[in-house]
Write a structure and sequence with these properties.
Blueprint lengths: L2 H27 L3 H28 L1 H14 L3 E8 L5 E12 L5 E6 L2 E6 L2 E6 L4
Antiparallel strand pairs: 1-2, 1-5, 2-3, 3-4
Helix pairs in contact: 1-2, 2-3
């Protein structure tokens, strides 16, 4: 799971545990400890279900797998890629291969760091093929 997913899961788990303990205390005060214990068991079952849902999302959906790949790229300063930069008429300007951190943007340019240098190309087409593993 991604870091943000772990934070979300922990928050939800703490809320469910807190609610379970609160309900448990209410039933214990009413001399019904068995019902309170059942509430705690249900709370832990809910936590297991929430974990299963988060885990399923990150291993079985394209969006979840992309999120894991994006986080991997961010934490390891890029992915192994082959980048080709083209002019508008299809001529190759440059090619790069290696561990490259490619920045997302909406400004009509491509920006990436490669071998200790920052490259910026404006008004061009970029083909990036990344090795994401399996």
């Amino acid at each position: 799971m991604t870091i943000s997913s772990w934070i979300g899961f922990i928050f939800l788990a703490l809320c469910v545990i807190g609610l379970g303990i609160f309900v448990f205390c209410l039933f214990v005060d009413d001399n019904k400890p068995v019902v309170g214990a059942i509430c705690l068991v249900v709370s832990f079952a809910l936590i297991a279900g929430i974990y299963g849902a988060f885990r399923w999302y990150h291993t079985s959906t394209a969006s979840g797998i992309r999120a894991l790949t994006d986080q991997k790229a961010e934490l390891s300063n890029g992915l192994n890629r082959h980048i080709t930069i083209y002019t508008a008429d299809g001529n190759v300007i440059a090619e790069y291969e290696g561990k490259i951190d490619l920045e997302d943007n909406q400004g009509g340019y491509v920006l990436f760091d490669y071998e200790g240098k920052r490259y910026t190309y404006y008004n061009c087409f970029v083909e990036s093929i990344a090795e994401i593993g399996g």
